[in-house]
Amino acid sequence: MVCVLNWFDPLTAALSAVVLPIGYFLIRRLVKFLKEHASELLDAVFFAVGRVFRTALMRRVSLRRYCRTLLGKSGNRYLAVPGRTSVLLETDSVFVPLRFSKKMGSQNLMNEVLGKGLRVRIIGDPGSGKSSLVKKMFRQMLSQGLHGLPQHKLPIMLELKTFSPPDLAEDLLGKWAYGELRRAVAAVEGFEMEKLFDVYALGRGVVVLLDGLDEVAGDVYPRVATAILELSRLLENKSDGNSVVLTMRSQFHQQIGEHFDDGFPMVVQIQPFTPSGIYRFLGNWPFDDDPEAQVTRLYSELADRPTLREMCSNPLVLAMYVASDVEGRHDGGAPDTRTAFYSNVVEELLVRRRSRQLGSQARSMLREQRETILGRLARDNIADPAQPANSLSWSTAIEVVRDVLQASAEVAEVEFLRILNETGIISEERPRESFRFIHLTFCEFLAAREFAQGITGGWQALRDLQKAFAKSSQAQLRSRLVEVIPFCVASTHRSERTDALIGLAPFVDSETLGRCFLETQAYDLALWADYRASEEKALESTPSDQWDEDWLRRLHLFSVVLSDEAEWRVLFNREDDGHKDEFFATLIRSDKSRLSRVFVTFARTDAPAAFRLADAVGMDLVAERPGLIIASFDDPAFRSLAIQKFEALRPTENTKKLEQWSIVLAHAGMTSEFVADELADRDPTPLQARVNGSLDASSRWYFDGKPPSAETRSLWSARRILGPSMYSYALTLVITRRLPSPFGTKSEATGIDLLATLVPPGRLRRRWVSVSLAFLFLTAYLALYATVVLPLGKVSELVGMTIGGAFAVLLYAVLALVAASLKYPSARRFSYAILANVQPPWGDEPWRRVFRRIFLIRLPRLVLRRVKAVGVQLRRDTFVPPEVATAADDERRNTVRALLADNDG
């Protein structure tokens, strides 16, 4: 009885009576809650999982389909170049990286756009490569997406002349533009392409490339600009990875740029080709035979004609020039003005396919007829502010053809189609609705010709049009005629050309007037003296701390005009007044530190002018500013002229001057692999007497061999493994004589400083040492075999296998040592060549890499220790580990920065 009473606990019973009902109540409420919201929770889980899965699926299937399809489209795959025949260049192979001014911009635009969400404006002159750049960026991004690279985004490219927003409220225009992007992606056949756009717009990001804001019609421009700005804000709110790139002409940007300052804060301006860019473009051109000779010939032709070279600093004009040259266009001499050049090209296009069947009179009549038709259409398009530039009405064209031919509408349309098909100068945009010239500059040129030659009082009409456009509230109209006016003045009959130039001058800016002088070469006018004095005053009155990109560009144009005037004086037997040199002397003499920026600018555009500039201010650049010469040595024209000046020195004339030039050559070669290779291909004259007569052979920084001109040029030539050359002799003088660095007291170590700590090639042991070591290894192996194996006689199978295996391994080791010994001298030469920045052409042969790995051939440990800090370009796939090459690249960048910082010295 006691046990039963002890079993019952009143407190426990009371708690149970209270807690159990409460617990039961809570459980029921929880079950009810789960029943009501389970689907929502599952939806959230499935949404998260599905989003990841859908993104992966989109990347794997839809994105690849999108990228593969658009990469095959001819619209972005090829760049069309007008000429006698249609020339289509592969965008990927012919494109040359463009230079940008640093107005809140970056030289590596592609990485900037892919790395973070940006709003960037790309501006440039007509034909400067804006559309080509957009196509190249578009194809690069498509390729990255196709291969699934980590930094890829979804690229979308649109031509703004086809971008026609409806008349909607401002807040709705952005949504409309967003829908247009979505529809552009969905137009590619594939798996849920609209969702592909949504996935990237909300996640990783899209890159929207909008090309040609200046080609938008004036009446729709406000809606287009608003739609772009609203679209930019909408994309920015959806993902921080979205980027928008907008291109337009520089002249147009000067008028409307402030409207986009907030929405598109980054501005990059495309710079004209430097001589290096021209040289590289020529090297990329697909010549049919002997490309190297063709490149050399064309580059020399351009270098000898400053005006022609200036004209060809425009990528479009350069492409047209090369295409014409390939077709035999320059049998009678190259044109020296843009007007003459465009005239030749247009004549080829207008009658190119029927010229063989027609006589000269019929050919002339056909050209005049077609030029009249296209000239009227171009003039009406340019003069009508309501029409988009270079977007012309099909029906208007038929009416013009009817009027010119006095024919029916049916005959007129047939003839217009023949012009379209036979000339290639125009192309159809929308069937039977609109067409365009293959480039806006053709439209401008033909419009100018029509103003000048097609109507009475044409230049006066153009003057009145310019006056009206200058007063317009529409920004794009104020810069619409900047290319037309120089073409028109140059195309005017010589009896009226002077009046046209004088009459138009008050209504154009200084840049347009300068180009008018380049086109007309009217340097005997009083207007020329006024222009020259005005430009000199404007340039000289600008403080040096305000010498920005715009000022340097203006200075460069003025310099080109002065050079052209100097050529004109020679041609017409006028006395050379030396005004150009006097102007630069006045500009810089008051402050020689200004020379650095101006010299670098001219070194890349007019090498002779750069040296004349230094002479005019009484500065010996080799002695006082060697860093400036080194920094400019990557330009082929400047490098060629500098080497000519060096080779003109007499070996016994000026020892100090030879040493100063040796400093320049050695450090320039260590800075650039291309420069090092070129200097290694030149004979060491005039350094031979200085090195061979005064330095011990053991201190020479080259291996035995013949100078480049006496060698047999082949793949195995010793000239590329640091033989006697201009470069190796300069290195020898600098290292042996401990000549001062052009960096002065700067802390950065240079490649030459570190080469000086190594054993010179002239002191290295000869090949017989390696042969002796190889013979010693083989002899030791044979002796060991004779000592151990032969006396054993008969042994058990197990012992025999053990001894045989051991000696087989030993034989492999001995053979590896023998191979390494025999190969060591050539590997050592190869290694020293890399350290001196000279790259042997056979370093990448696959069988050599296999050979090195099998036989354990590596650099000596001493060289490996030194190479970690060498500031030269090193091959990543030879003896140098990736981390060592990375360190070397970092050091090389520091070296280049030190060179360019010479401006402060």
Automatic annotation (TrEMBL):
Keywords assigned by UniProt, alphabetized: Membrane, Transmembrane, Transmembrane helix
Pfam family, one: NACHT
Record bears the keyword Magnesium: no
Superkingdom of origin: Bacteria
TM regions (residue ranges): 6-27, 768-792, 798-822
Membrane as UniProt keyword: yes
Domain NACHT: 118-250
Name of the molecule in the record: Signal transduction protein
